[in-house]
Design brief:
This protein is an alpha+beta fold. It has three helices and eight strands; from the N terminus they run E-H-E-H-E-E-E-E-E-E-H. About 20% of the residues lie in helices and about 40% in strands. The protein has an eight-stranded antiparallel β-sheet, with helices on both faces.
């Protein structure tokens, strides 16, 4: 499946000799204003409020999706951690619109909107999933959280294991939160779509397409 709009750190010569120069550094951020930014900001505010709600009545389902890829960990990590590689491989995903990218103490934080066509019975719903990805490059794992209507949250933690034989095992741990009437549908669709793009990434990595 939370919005802290920042700006780039301004550095002036006079600050170098002042006590403020020794304060905690401000994250270096790049903003990308676009037509979806206001929607992302409003949705992320809802997400943040829900994270503080101790009486949340939504149901929770979890899934663990390991997959082994015949490629070195560095190669698999580079492909997997770039969300744009999911486009054309994730069955719902049509595009990714990035709003902000920050480097915070070695962690890359990316705020984005995933534009999706979600099948719902005989119709397709044009979904806008609001998300944040946090890439821990030094530790070779990343996490992401997403929010979508109607009040659906998905947490992800993706880890990479070097098997020592030229293969890498990727484990996606997914947690879905949704209304009790929607939780099974949400988890089934979410798990199936993640498995589909896992298999597509595996195919294209092993065939040298990525």
């Amino acid at each position: 499946m939370r919005f802290v709009m920042g700006c780039a750190l301004a550095v002036v010569a006079s600050a170098l000799s002042s006590p403020a120069a020794h304060a905690e550094p401000t994250p270096a951020c790049a903003e990308s204003a676009n037509g979806y930014t206001a929607e992302w900001q409003a949705s992320w505010s809802i997400y943040q409020a829900e994270q503080r709600n101790s009486s949340d009545s939504r149901s929770v389902l979890e899934a663990d999706l390991p997959i082994t890829i015949a490629a070195a960990p560095e190669k698999v990590w580079t492909v997997y951690s770039d969300i744009r590689n999911d486009i054309g491989r994730h069955p719902f995903l049509k595009d990714v619109v990035t709003h902000r990218t920050c480097d915070e103490d070695g962690i890359q934080v990316i705020d984005f909107t995933a534009l999706e066509d979600i099948p719902m019975g005989p119709v397709t719903f044009p979904g806008h999933t609001q998300a944040q990805q946090r890439i821990h490059a030094a530790e070779h794992y990343y996490t992401s959280d997403s929010w979508d209507v109607p009040d659906i949250i998905t947490h992800q933690r993706i880890t990479f294991t070097d098997n020592g034989d030229g293969t890498t095992t990727v484990d996606e741990r997914l947690t879905f939160l949704a209304d009790p009437a929607l939780i099974q549908f949400t988890a089934d669709n979410g798990t199936a779509s993640h498995r589909a793009y896992q298999l597509a990434l595996k195919r294209d990595i092993e065939n040298g397409v990525l």
